[in-house]
Specification:
It is a single chain. Helices cover about 65% and strands about 0% of the residues. It has about 140 residues and is an all-alpha fold. It has one domain. α3 packs antiparallel against α4. The radius of gyration is 16 Å and the shape is globular.
Length: about 140
């Protein structure tokens, strides 16, 4: 998933002001020096933080829809990258990630329509983040 830098950078802007669309916003500012996994981690972390902050008492009425929108943009960009013919992930991994994205989209609808908590969406983002930066045992890092 190569296009995470633009979304990470543009996500600090007003969440609903993206006239170019998600893919354009997500793919226009990739940093050549940043590891794609680090970019994806950062984008997911920001989306999870927005979902968490939408639950706070001081969050306004637009906080949850805006957080869901941002999270959808992340997952739309991921699915676009996964479907690209240049993506060399194993087909089984692509299928699992696309299935997860499908769940994220459906759960987002349930959160907005049925008033469910967005906590599961934030948890999924964090689970993917953990896969992007697995904790290595001390022997693997050279530290004892």
């Amino acid at each position: 998933m190569q296009n995470a830098a633009a979304l990470a950078d543009s996500a600090t802007l007003a969440p609903l002001n993206r006239p170019q669309g998600a893919v354009a916003a997500y793919g226009s500012v990739i940093r050549g020096t940043e590891n794609p996994r680090d970019i994806e981690y950062r984008v997911l972390a920001r989306a999870a933080a927005l979902l968490d902050s939408a639950l706070l008492d001081e969050a306004g009425p637009a906080a949850l829809p805006a957080a869901i929108h941002e999270n959808r943009l992340v997952w739309i960009a991921f699915t676009t990258d996964l479907a690209d013919h240049n993506n060399h992930f194993d087909d089984a991994l692509k299928a699992r990630l696309l299935s997860l994205a499908r769940w994220v989209f459906a759960e987002s609808d349930r959160v907005l329509r049925d008033g469910r908590s967005p906590q599961a969406l934030a948890d999924i983002n964090r689970a993917v983040m953990a896969g992007l930066r697995p904790v290595l045992p001390p022997a693997a890092t050279g530290l004892s």
